[in-house]
Amino acid sequence: LLGAQNRARKRHEFVMLAADKLLLKGRIAQKSVVLKEKEFTLHHRNFTTVGTQAAVLAGFSVTALVEFGAPRESNRVLLFCFYASLVFSLSANVLCVGKTTLLSVFGTSLAMRGPDGAMVSAVDGMYNMRRDVFLLFNAGMFSVLFMGIFGAWILFDALAAGAMTLVLGAGIWAIVSNQGRIVALFDFAEADAVRFDDIFRVVRNIRIQPPA
After folding, report:
1. Residue 182: how many CB atoms within 10 A of its CB?
2. 24-28 long-range Cβ contacts below 8 angstroms, 24+ apart
3. What is the Cα–Cα distance from 121 to 125, expressed in whole angstroms?
4. Tens-digit pLDDT profile for residues 69-119
5. Residue 69: φ, ψ to 5°
6. Residue 99 contacts by C-beta under 8 Å, 6 or more apart in sequence?
């Protein structure tokens, strides 16, 4: 009788430990999803901001394409550089708008309606695509500035065009230098990024020995 009671008590303890393990795994999964949702919201807002600014720059390019009136005696090399910068800026900014829109729409769809682990996949996908989006935005932004330089030499005399080139060149240098400082200030190693794989691995490795 005493042996049967001991076996029953051990089975009860085993069941309780298994239930505690399931509860622990559930709580960790819930917390990780909450954190990943915050990271997803951050990426979504960043892409929305970049896409909005790229749309504004694309509007500048379209306006320049429609409204720019070059004198007939304009230098053909300058005209070629101007329109090449304009078309490149328009293409880069429109592509940036399209990419951020697709990332926001399909990323949200995957995160909200996808299978288990979809939130993590959506966040990782958006994080991996961020460099391409930022490169497109930078290309479109700098093309607008170079377009302004070439337009100045087409429309104005040498003194005015030189002064505008200095101002725009200083703006380009300021953007590049500030971007470098900001990136260096907030940069971190990928190995130091917050990850949940180790936590889940520890939980998965928890083993509960059944009673003998």
Report:
1. 10
2. 24/203, 24/206, 25/203, 28/196, 28/199, 28/200, 28/203
3. 6
4. 888 888 999 999 999 999 999 999 999 999 999 999 999 888 888 887 788
5. -120, 100
6. 129, 132, 133, 136
Token readout for 71 is 């004198």
What is the C-alpha to C-alpha distance for residues 208 and 198, in angstroms, rounded to an integer?
A: 19
State phi, psi for 83 to the nearest 5 degrees: -70, -30
Pairwise CA distance, residues 46 & 33, whole Å: 20
Selection from 113, 59, 126 nearest residue 90 by Cα: 59
Secondary structure string (H, E, C) spanning the chain? CHHHHHHHHHHHHHHHHHHHHHHHHHHHHHHHHHHHHHHHHHHHHHHHHHHHHHHHHHHHHHHHHHHCCCCCCCCHHHHHHHHHHHHHHHHHHHHHHHHHHHHHHHHHHHHHHCCCCHHHHHHHHHHHHHHHHHHHHHHHHHHHHHHHHHHHHHHCCHHHHHHHHHHHHHHHHHHHHHHHHHHHHHCCCHHHCCCCHHHHHHHHCCCCCCCC
Amino acid identity for residue 67 in this structure: E
- Give the global pTM: 0.75
What is the spatial distance between Cα 61 and Cα 140, in angstroms, rounded to a whole number?
A: 9
Q: CA-CA distance, 28 to 64, in Å (whole number)?
A: 54
